[in-house]
Design the sequence.
């Protein structure tokens, strides 16, 4: 793995297009890997939800047609056994990786918070690696 990253890094110094391609490859790869980790982390402790839907209690923040059913749960992102689908985990990972912020989901247990911490450290390492 280190040899592959070294080859990518050496070829990236030739022009800026390769540097941008390397950054994109590493960022998207990291996003997918962390999405898999978030998906598996839901099943470690089945009693808790590792990532919960962020809800608002204020009436002015509610949207009239927000793709929810009568119970208020978002059916597009929920999979089997009240767990998030892989697509929802991928979305959560992409939002975390791009450091946009948590718009729809928030981590609710310590395992997921630790994973988020390592993903943010990975963002810093990828950025530093491609800039050097």
Sequence:
């Amino acid at each position: 793995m280190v040899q592959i990253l070294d080859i990518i890094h050496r070829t990236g110094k030739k022009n800026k297009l390769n540097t941008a391609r390397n950054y994109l490859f590493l960022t998207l790869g990291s996003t997918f890997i962390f999405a898999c980790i978030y998906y598996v982390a839901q099943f470690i402790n089945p009693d808790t939800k590792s990532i919960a839907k962020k809800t608002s209690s204020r009436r002015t923040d509610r949207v009239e047609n927000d793709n929810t059913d009568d119970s208020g749960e978002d059916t597009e992102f929920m999979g089997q056994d009240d767990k998030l689908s892989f697509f929802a985990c991928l979305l959560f990972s992409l939002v975390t990786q791009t450091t946009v912020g948590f718009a729809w989901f928030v981590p609710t247990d310590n395992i997921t918070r630790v994973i988020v911490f390592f993903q943010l450290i990975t963002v810093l390492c990828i950025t530093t690696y491609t800039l050097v």
In short: The radius of gyration is 18 Å.
